[in-house]
Amino acid sequence: xxxxxxxxxxxxxxxxxxxxxxxxxxxxxxxxxxxxxxxxxxxxxxxxxxxxxxxxxxxxxxxxxxxxxxxxxxxxxxxxxxxxxxxxxxxxxxxxxxxxxxxxx
Amino acid sequence: xxxxxxxxxxxxxxxxxxxxxxxxxxxxxxxxxxxxxxxxxxxxxxxxxxxxxxxxxxxxxxxxxxxxxxxxxxxxxxxxxxxxxxxxxxxxxxxxxxxxxxxxxxxxxxxxxxxxxxx
Lengths: 105, 119
Description:
Chain A is mainly beta and about 100 residues long. In chain A, about 0% of the residues lie in helices and about 50% in strands. Chain A is globular and about 35 Å long. The chains are: A mainly beta (about 100), B mainly beta (about 120).
């Protein structure tokens, strides 16, 4: 299995802050990295696919970057509705998810 | 816009069989991979397995011996069976479909079904 780690595991930020979450994989996954937002009691929502492609309907303040084993999700200006837990997921081999990063506003 | 609606038994005893079904609305089963993903209470996400319209399946190696995913093309739905279950299988189970980009991401999700395994 490809292992994923995320940092930070949790953070508290203010509206308007720039927030960065990092995902590291245990081997090169050739850009097959996706990001999700999950709110309590809800299914995850796809934000970014293939490392840097913004899913349709997702605000442009969300962006993704990275390659090989190091990837980043950035929220350029945090909004109140952005609270939740963010997960990365690799789809290079048998899919696995990171442990999550909880964002409090 | 594809929508997924799922249902199944929410309370099981150890050694019983978990059975969930997911119906696809606004699209057909053709050309997509149909997945099951689970999340234990307060924990992260775990991929369970997937099935293609062709019937080809892929399962999480850690669950492979206990999982079966099947298609009902006439009913435009797919199903998950997990047997036998233990307390460790207590989780919210989601059905999901892959993004058409080929990225392996999951773009459409069911509402989730909490399955509790307890004697």
